[in-house]
Structure formats: C-alpha cells, structure tokens
Design goal:
With 175 residues, this protein is mostly beta strands. It contains 1 helix and 10 strands. Helices cover 2% and strands 35% of the residues. The protein is rod-shaped, with a radius of gyration of 25 Å. The two termini are 19 Å apart.
Length: 175
C-alpha cells in the first residue's frame, strides 16, 4: 500500500576551458596615452617601454593568453565541481482505484570539488563555462583605474544550476 522511491543523482565534474577564450587589444592599433608609464600598469605583465596605450582608441582585437593563468588555456584545463542531488516519491494506495502520490524534488543539492580559480570565488557553484551570452571578457581592453564589472572581469563564469525545492501532490484514479 505504501511505497518510497528515492532517486539519488551524482554527476562527476566535467572539464571546461578554451584556448581562444580571452581577447585583448592589438596594441599596434591603439593611440598612446598622453601621460603615464608602462611600469606598474597591470596590462603590461611582461614589461615594456614607452607610453601605455589608450584602450578606447584601439581599433582591433587579438586572442591573448588568459589574464589569470597567463597561458592559452588548454581545452578542458579546468574541472567543474561534482553535483549531488536527492529526490523522492512517496505513494499510498488509498483504494484499489485511487493512489495518493507526493513527489519531492531537490531535497538535497550539493556541489563540491572542482578547480579553485579566481572566477570560482572560493565557493563552488554547480558549473562554469565561457561567459553567458558569449560576452567577451575584458582581457586587457581597459585603462588602469577603470571599473570592471564582474560579468566581464573573468574569462569564465558560473552556470546557475541550483534549483529550488519543489513538492507535488497528485491523486490518481483508475477507471
């Protein structure tokens, strides 16, 4: 008369990463700033000479290394967290022709493990990939002192996969 059907789902963290994910300015197409120095400019990680470029004046972009790993990321260079989910269904036969059923979805959800990277923020979300909407990350297309929004600050963003707890109750009749 009474039955319990649990459903436990485990998804091992998948790989993500792309070598041509990060774009930046082609400094050959930029006008120099009127003041400043490349010394201490975060866009010149490997040094340089002369005046730094003025980002709004740049005409072209090129693929650049990931600003955080300093390399062109290999495909699958990073590991997403693993995902654990628990659901359950309870049913009770009221009569031979009527069954009461309760479904509990997303009783427990947990993400754990995965690569620790600047864009993960120290707390694993349930997934990461290229920035949503194919919005290119800022790379080096900024001037020092500019405010950079988090959406474009990193080459990868989190995928919001957490879903709320849901409960469904049904009464089934057999004719």
């Amino acid at each position: 008369k009474f039955s319990v059907t649990p459903l436990l789902t485990f998804i091992s963290g998948s790989r993500y990463g792309a070598p041509e994910q990060q774009i930046g300015v082609d400094p050959r197409t930029c006008a120099p700033r009127l003041t400043g120095s490349v010394v201490g400019d975060p866009r010149y990680k490997y040094g340089g000479t002369g005046l730094p470029y003025d980002a709004p004046s740049c005409v072209n972009t090129i693929v650049i290394p990931d600003q955080f790993t300093n390399v062109l990321d290999a495909p699958g260079a990073f590991l997403e967290p693993s995902f654990l989910n628990l659901n359950a269904q309870l049913s009770y036969d009221l009569t031979s022709r009527a069954t009461l059923r309760a479904t509990f979805a997303n009783i427990l959800q947990s993400c754990f493990g995965g690569s620790t990277e600047p864009w993960t923020g120290g707390k694993p979300q349930c997934g990461y990939d290229v920035v949503a909407g194919h919005i290119p990350p800022v790379g080096n297309i900024y001037n020092p002192g500019d405010t950079i929004q988090r959406l474009v600050q990193y080459p990868y963003g989190n995928i919001l996969t957490a879903t709320p707890f849901n409960m469904y109750v049904t009464l089934d009749f057999k004719l």
